[in-house]
Design brief:
Dna Ligase, domain 1, 4-stranded mixed beta sheet, elongated
């Protein structure tokens, strides 16, 4: 096992421990759990800022960083597609035996791990390589265009829906406000939700909901219809739990991930399923320690409530697909496993098996793939990486290698080199680390007296046919 693989497993063990113990702390049984049970396992607004910042930095800094991020994302798309394809058929079984919040986390885990940590997950070699005879650069710009369009669509939808809700919205009657303040006071003793929170009636909604991503923009909205005080108490508890757990921020994060993987239908399904499981988890929390009549009342609210949850909203209404699960959980609650160990096992597997499958893009000659066609380069060949054997002239080997056909490999791969080359040309330093089918290429700017500058290329390539290294090295030695 290489050092890179060992390091990745150490990272996997650490992140697995954090996810497992954090989830158990936030969701352990008992009514004396304190503020921990109100907190999200991952801060969704923090996660939602990371994804656009990575892409913005990639676009602003240099094209190499953008290509590296895009190359990694190609592999993230493949891995998450396989994960969601495996999760979808077993979800009904998992919902029967594990808490709904654990099921919601199962949809979030690959997005959190791969979008936030994947750039730090380096690998030696993939187990499987999928060749694609299309230029990676062309695909990168098509993908970026789709991402921007989906984000613009979702943000515009949220803004239009919010404006429609607030148009002609007005304050409720005194009795409704009294119930709302009473629920707020009950929840303030347990949660960290202490900021002022407006309550409004809107003719534009048919279901209770909350909308807004920041404390200043949050609003709890009610439709213009009559509710009993007991119904209002359950409604307000439902919406305030969503707000305390920042579920609207979680939906924003999922929208960002879906925009990045807009061409993957499984990601759109995952976004919908995760939203359903967030609602199921909220139901469980609302009805914690509630009597049977409260459960029947809550089920009735779901049956007679239909609504619209466009934008980054959380609402009481249920989709037809999720309604059956929600009613069954409400009226016939079952003792379920919390799911902390399940999440830990899935986290460990996602990290440990990342990088096992890689894309390989657009076969080219090696010199064309790394843009070293006609340049005069002084090459040195190093038989090992410990410098125990003096360097020799590497030009004869390069003359053969430069004409070999290679695919550019997606992801962060750096195979353990059997031998390597160092080349110097005008203002550039070039390194080729060779190992079997693979060659890792690193090209950096170099200025005398100032040392190395920014990277021009840092990527791994796979030969369509492995060179006869023994013959090459013997020829060079001769």
């Amino acid at each position: 096992m290489s050092l890179l693989d060992t390091g990745r497993l150490i990272i996997a063990a650490f992140i697995t421990s954090v996810v497992t113990f954090r989830f158990i702390a936030c969701n352990r049984d008992g009514s004396d759990r304190g503020k921990e049970r109100w907190r999200p396992v991952f801060d969704p607004l923090y996660l939602a800022t990371i994804v656009p910042m990575v892409f913005a930095a990639s676009l602003l800094l240099d094209t190499v960083m953008l290509q590296n991020v895009g190359s990694s994302l190609a592999e993230v798309v493949l891995t998450t597609a396989v994960y969601f394809a495996l999760l979808l058929p077993v979800l009904p079984l998992l919902r029967r035996h594990f808490s709904t919040r654990a099921c919601a986390m199962l949809w979030l885990l690959p997005n959190v791990l791969y979008f936030v940590f994947y750039e730090h997950m380096n690998h030696s070699e993939p187990l499987f390589v999928l060749p694609i005879r299309v230029s990676f650069g062309w695909l990168l710009w098509v993908w970026l265009g789709g991402t921007v369009l989906v984000l613009a669509w979702k943000l515009a939808e949220h803004i239009r829906f919010r404006r429609a809700l607030l148009r002609n919205a007005h304050a409720p009657d005194e009795e409704t406000l009294t119930v709302f303040q009473g629920v707020r006071e009950e929840m303030e003793e347990e949660s960290a939700l202490k900021e002022p929170l407006p309550l409004l009636l809107s003719p534009q909604t048919s279901t209770p909901l909350s909308i807004g991503l920041t404390r200043k923009t949050l609003r709890v909205m009610l439709p213009e219809r009559n509710y009993t005080p007991d119904e209002l108490r359950l409604i307000f508890r439902h919406e305030l739990i969503h707000i305390a757990r920042r579920d609207a921020g979680t939906k924003l994060f999922l929208v960002l991930c879906t925009a990045v993987m807009w061409f993957n239908p499984l990601m759109w399904i995952a976004m919908r399923r995760c939203a359903d499981d967030l609602e199921l988890g909220c139901d469980e929390f609302v009805l914690l320690d509630e009597p049977e009549d409260a459960r029947s009342l809550y089920a009735g609210l779901l049956l007679k409530t239909a609504g619209d949850e466009r934008g980054f909203t959380t609402c009481l209404s249920a989709t037809a697909e999720a309604l059956r699960y929600r009613l069954e959980n409400i009226l016939r609650p079952k003792k379920k496993l919390l799911g902390g160990l399940l999440l830990g096992l899935v986290t460990l597997s996602l990290i440990a098996f990342s990088g096992t499958i890689a894309f390989a893009f657009a076969p080219q000659r090696l010199d064309e793939a790394i843009s070293l066609g006609a340049e005069e380069i002084e090459w040195y060949y190093y038989p090992d990486s410990d410098y125990t054997v003096p360097a020799s002239d590497g030009a004869p080997i390069w003359e053969v290698l430069r004409g070999c056909e290679v695919y550019r490999l997606s992801g962060n791969y750096r195979p353990d080199a059997d031998f390597w080359f160092h080349g110097n040309t005008d203002g550039k330093s070039i390194e080729l680390h060779c190992s079997g089918h693979y060659v890792f290429v690193e090209i950096r700017l170099y200025e005398k007296g100032k040392g190395y500058g920014r990277d021009l290329l840092k990527s791994c390539f796979v030969f369509t046919e492995e060179p006869d290294w023994d013959a090459l090295l013997a020829k060079n030695a001769g």
